[in-house]
Amino acid sequence: MTLFTAGPAQLSPQIASVLSLPTLHHRSKEFQEIFDFCHNHLLQICPMQEVFFLCCSGSGAMESAICSFSPRHLLILENGKFSSRWGEIAKNFSISTTILSCPWDRSHTLEEVKKALKENPNIDGVCLCGVESSGGVREKYEEICKAIKEHDPSILTFLDAIALFGSEHIEIENIDVLVASSQKVLGLPVGLGMVFVSSRALEILHLRSPLSYYLALQNYLTHPIAFSLPSHLFLALKFVLKHIDLMRNSILIKKRFEETRELLASKGVALYSKNPSFSIIAFDDPQNSIKTALAKQNILISSGGGYLKNSISRIGNFGGFQEYQILLKALQRI
C-alpha cells in the first residue's frame, strides 16, 4: 500500500536510505553537529525563541507543553478528536478546563472565543489546533490568538501545529507554545516531537514546576540533549531541511489541494470542511466508498476521525516527497 493517509506520511526512498545509516551516539561530536544544524534551521523556519526536541509522537509533545507550563485553568477550543486531546491531557494532570466546542466542520469564531474568555476570568491558557485533522479544518488561529492577547496578554496560547507545520507559513506573533512532529509534512517516521516557545514562554518556563519528569521541558534548559535522542531521525531531518524548501513546499501543497478539490468536485464530491486545510483534505465519503475503491488500487487514505469515521475520508497532502500524481490518477479512475 502507498500511504496518502492523514499521517504518517509515506516514507520516501531517499529518506529510507538516510534512516539506514549507522547509529550515532547521542553524546558524540558528530551527533551534536547534526543536532545543532536541525535546531538552527528549524528556528529559521519558525523563528520563535527556542525549540525543544522530544523522543515521542505529536501527542507526547502536546503533553510536554501542558505539564511543563502547568497552567491553572485552560480554555480548550474543541472541534475534533485531536483538539479534544488537549482537554484529556489537562484532565490527566488535574488541570481545570473550560471546553468551547463547535461543529467539527468549522473553525471557532472570534465572538465565541471572546465570550468564553469574558465568562471565565481565571483562564491562564488557551489550547487550539492549527489544523484539526479529524475533519480537515483549518482553525483561524491568527485571528483567535490575536484576540486572546488583546483580551489579556498574560494568557498563554498553545497551538497544535502538527498538521500545519511546513504546509504553510505560520504566523507566530501571538503564539507562546507551538507543537510540531516528524511524521506529516516533514515526511519522517513517527518519533520526534518538537515544542517551540516564545521569549515570554521561555521566561515562564524557568519559573514553573513541571508536572512530569521525562516530558518536562525544564530538563532541556541547561542540557539541550537531556536524554537519549534517535540519531537516525535527526540524520533524516537534516536531509529534509537541506533538500526541501518548505516555502516552495507550501506552494506545492496548496496547488495539489486545488487539483484535488477540482477533481473531487468533477465527481460530485464535496469537501467536508467549511474552512478546509491544505494539508489534510477531508471530503464527504459515505461508508468510505472512495477510500475502499482506492485501497483496491493499493492506495491507503484515512477515514474520518472520531464519529466521522464512516462519513468522510481524508487525504494527507504533504508535498515534495510524495508521488502525488499516483493518487490523482487513481482518483480519476474511480
Automatic annotation (TrEMBL):
Residues 23-206 form the Aminotransferase class V domain. Transmembrane segments: none annotated. The modification N6-(pyridoxal phosphate)lysine is found at residue 184. Substrate binds at residue 314. One of its GO terms (molecular function) is transaminase activity. Its cofactor is pyridoxal 5'-phosphate. This is Alanine--glyoxylate aminotransferase family protein. The keyword Repeat does not apply. The keyword Transferase applies. It comes from the Bacteria. PROSITE patterns: AA_TRANSFER_CLASS_5. Belongs to the class-V pyridoxal-phosphate-dependent aminotransferase family. Keywords: Aminotransferase, Pyridoxal phosphate, Transferase.
